[in-house]
Amino acid sequence: MRSPTFACQEFYDLAHTHNVAIVYAKDEDFPEIDQHTADFIYARLMASREDLENGVTDAELDGFAAQARAWAKRGDVFAYFISGAKVRNPAAAQLLIAKLAK
């Protein structure tokens, strides 16, 4: 588990000084740190669920797309779906790609 103690200005400044992206992890168990510390964004979207055919709801997908568009204004975005619902991650990723292409 990532410690919430990393959600502090000293850590952000250190990462920024060395152009290190802090992983944005979308998961209930991890602190969601969305800080611009590098010339790229690295996001682990850990929200897909096996009980949903596409892994995520349309509303969640819209939220991820909006967030990815906002991140893209700050630099390149490297985002992927990773969760225990491994069989749903490809569908979620493909839908996000299609939504971002519009």
How many helices does DSSP assign? 3
Distance between the termini: 36 Å
SS strand fraction: 5-15%
Mean pLDDT: 92
E-strand count:
3
Which regions contain 5 or more consecutive residues with pLDDT less than 50? none
Describe it:
The chain is 36% helix and 15% strand. It is built from three helices and three strands; from the N terminus they run H-E-E-H-E-H. Strand 2, helix 2 (58-72) and strand 3 form a beta-alpha-beta unit. Helix 2 crosses helix 3 (89-101). It is globular and about 40 Å long.
Secondary structure elements and their pairing?
Blueprint: H1 9-17, E1 24-26, E2 40-45, H2 58-72, E3 76-81, H3 89-101
Parallel strand pairs: 1-2, 2-3
Question: Which tags fit this structure?
Answer:
single chain; 102 residues; alpha/beta; three-stranded parallel sheet; 3 helices; 36% helix; 15% strand
